[in-house]
Amino acid sequence: MGEIALTAVMAALSDPIRVGLVRVLADGRERGWGELRTPVAKSTLSHHLRVLRDAGLTRTRQEGTRCFVILRRPELQARFPGLLQAVLAAAEEEDIGHRVSVKDAEQPA
C-alpha cells in the first residue's frame, strides 16, 4: 500500500457522508458493509467506501460475499499526527455526518 497523500485524504473528507463513515469507524472496530446505515442507496454507499479506501483512510477485506471495512487509524496518525482527531472533533462540534450510524445487533438487516 502506497503513501497516504494529504490531498487525497482531504478530498475524501469533503463529503458529509464520508465524514460520517469515518466517525462511525473511529471506534476501531471492523464493520461489515451491511452494518452501516446511511441515507444513501447501496451503490452510493459503495462509492463512498471506495473513495475512502482509495484515499488510504480505510482498509477493506472481503470474506466470501461479505465486505468489511476498518479505519486505518494507526497509519493516519503516523502520517498526519493529530489530523484525524481534529477532523473528528470538528465533525462532532459541527454535527457533520450525524446521519450515518451502525445498525443495532437486534435490528434485522
Characterization of this structure:
This protein is α+β, with helices and mostly antiparallel strands and 109 residues long. It has one domain (6-96): Arc Repressor Mutant, subunit A, CATH 1.10.10.10. 45% of the residues lie in helices and 17% in strands. The protein contains five helices and five strands. The protein has helices at residues 6-12, 16-25, 42-54, 73-79, 83-94; strands at 31-32, 36-37, 58-63, 66-71, 101-102. The strands form two sheets. The protein has a three-stranded antiparallel β-sheet, with helices on one face. Strands 2-5 form a two-stranded antiparallel sheet. Strand 3 and strand 4 (66-71) form a beta hairpin. Helix 2 (16-25) crosses helix 5. The radius of gyration is 13 Å and the shape is globular.
